[in-house]
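Hi all, posting the design record for the shared folder.

TITLE: backbone redesign
STEP: 1 of 1
STRUCTURE INPUT:
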């Protein structure tokens, strides 16, 4: 089939279990591959890296008017350009920075280990589990809820909201997405109202969580507006959850398919941090990102006109043989592993540090139980989303 259909084929659910042959076809077709819908698809490492760091490439949506409303809705700072992106990202990072950083990071590590242990204990007498529903999904949503200070009885609300918001952000060929967008907007509004109301309850009564820090910022010049607080906290949930679910689940699937590497990690648990980095390259949670050039831009001799939708196939770049030796081999000792698992440049995934800690804890806790485990279904059923790719279920026999 023609290269002009590559985005459609990558987005086709039938290819979700293994899009990597299509990425190889994309790299072979050239650095810039024009698609039938007018967009450009790019899958080579060095071109992707250059564009992710190019200030002429905008992360902002082509229109800020929601398709289901006449109102203009401000996007989260992940979809804004500098200087506004830098201002909001800096303000949002303040609760993580000095003097908070040592206390909060250490507390998160302990809390993550505790939550992981509770989840493992609940699986102890089970003969079969679903890695997604029983472990990979509840872990990050619980962690981010505790970090934000959400009451435990309300944690389940965020699973439903997060699913709908992520589905509304998928990338694919042009189609009628009105209903999906309406559902995503409603979920954002409900989650945002909940978080703003919860923050307001803590105004003047600090409780040590991130919502409390945001609402009680002493410097008026550094306070988030109500709108900014809503969008930023929603982004924290999405960035801190969805990537981690896919990273953990893809990790378990990869290791069960490679028992020799599983055995090696069980013998050498000190390799886990490097193994997580290799998983981020080999089976990343984030596969694509969209950018819009603010002016005509030249990429490897091809001019991409201003305003064109440019889809950067990050997962393809992370398997580019011009950058990585034997890129289709999973190697937990791989050196110089500068992958695109969380993107790159100023929009590097906001939840990346938390996701790494969670993945190391999760896989480390699971390793002792995976020695005799086997997959019930291979390939497993995948989520619909082609941009944030991962199994919807991963049943295994223990």
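Okay, here is what came back for every position:
SEQUENCE:
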């Amino acid at each position: 089939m023609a290269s002009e259909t590559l985005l459609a084929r990558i987005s086709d659910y039938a290819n979700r279990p293994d899009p990597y042959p299509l990425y190889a076809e994309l790299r072979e077709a050239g650095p810039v591959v024009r698609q039938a819908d007018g967009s450009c698809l790019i899958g080579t490492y060095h071109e992707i890296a250059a564009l992710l760091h190019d200030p002429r490439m905008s992360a902002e949506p082509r229109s800020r008017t929601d398709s289901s409303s006449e109102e203009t809705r401000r996007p989260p700072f992940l979809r804004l350009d500098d200087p506004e992106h830098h201002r909001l990202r800096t303000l949002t990072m303040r609760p993580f920075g000095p003097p908070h950083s040592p206390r909060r990071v250490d507390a998160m590590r302990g809390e993550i280990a505790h939550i992981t242990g509770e989840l493992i204990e609940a699986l102890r007498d089970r003969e079969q589990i679903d890695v997604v529903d029983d472990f990979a999904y509840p872990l990050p949503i619980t962690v981010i809820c505790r970090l934000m200070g959400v009451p435990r009885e309300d944690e389940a609300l965020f699973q439903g909201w997060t699913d709908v918001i992520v589905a509304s952000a998928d990338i694919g060929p042009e189609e009628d997405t009105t209903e999906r967008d309406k559902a995503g907007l409603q979920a954002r509004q409900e989650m945002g109202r909940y978080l703003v109301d919860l923050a307001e309850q803590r105004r003047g009564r600090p409780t040590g969580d991130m919502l409390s820090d945001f609402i009680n910022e002493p410097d008026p010049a550094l306070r988030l507006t109500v709108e900014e607080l809503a969008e930023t906290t929603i982004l924290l949930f999405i960035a801190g959850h969805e990537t981690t679910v896919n990273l953990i689940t893809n990790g378990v699937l990869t290791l069960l398919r490679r028992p020799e590497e599983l055995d090696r990690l069980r013998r050498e648990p000190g390799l886990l941090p490097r193994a997580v980095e290799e998983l981020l390259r080999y089976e990343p949670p984030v596969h694509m990102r969209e950018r819009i050039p603010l002016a005509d831009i030249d990429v490897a001799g091809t001019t991409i006109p201003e305003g064109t939708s440019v889809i950067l196939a990050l997962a393809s770049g992370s398997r580019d043989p011009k950058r990585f030796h034997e890129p289709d081999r999973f190697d937990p000792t791989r050196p110089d592993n500068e992958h695109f698992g969380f993107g790159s440049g100023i929009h590097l995934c906001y939840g990346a540090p938390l996701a790494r800690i969670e993945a190391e804890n999760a896989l480390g806790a699971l390793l002792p139980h995976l020695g005799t485990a086997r997959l019930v279904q291979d390939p497993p059923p995948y989520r619909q989303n082609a941009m944030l790719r991962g199994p919807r279920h991963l049943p295994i026999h223990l």
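COMMENT: The first helix runs from residue 6 to 11.
Let me know if anyone wants the other runs.
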